[in-house]
Amino acid sequence: MGRKAMTNLKFNTPTKTPARSEKDPTGDAQPIRREQVLIPPVDIQETDEAVLLMADMPGVSRETLKVECAHEHLTIEGAISVDLPENMISVDADLRSSHYQRQFKLGHEIDSEKIKAELKNGVLTLTLPKHGDHRVRQIPISA
């Protein structure tokens, strides 16, 4: 038997976020710096019916998560939301100014209208179903 062909799913490099300025607690302006873009690690599994994509995105909530599919491009983005107590002042905000972003190019066999997303314990799970004509099916053999 031959090796199973993998669905065409390509990874794209995340885009840079525009520069922005920040201030420290004393009111002095800090040099302009770029917001840190984190690339979430992913696991990809494939069945005959679908491709499962699991992305680790700790610190991201449902409210700050965005999953978009435009044409054959699937983008996942999520801002890390860390709330500080009222009496605490942020001196350096590397974590608070970070977000996850990753883009994938989907193959023609993925049915983008039926993609499902679930976020649980910091793990985003996407189910990318295949079109019916791209699913593996058994062919009966006649005598």
From TrEMBL:
Gene3D superfamilies: 2.60.40.790
Region annotation Disordered: where it falls in the sequence: 1-34
Family matches, as Pfam families: HSP20
Domain SHSP residues, every copy: 33-143
UniProt KW keywords: Stress response
UniProt biased composition (Basic and acidic residues): 19-34
Regions of compositional bias (Polar residues) in chain numbering: 9-18
Record flagged with keyword Lyase: no
The keyword Zinc-finger is annotated on this UniProt entry: no
SUPFAM superfamilies: HSP20-like chaperones (SSF49764)
InterPro entries referenced in this protein's UniProt entry, alphabetically: A-crystallin/Hsp20_dom, HSP20-like_chaperone, Small_HSP
Protein name in the entry: Heat shock protein, Hsp20
Source organism phylogeny: unclassified sequences, metagenomes, ecological metagenomes
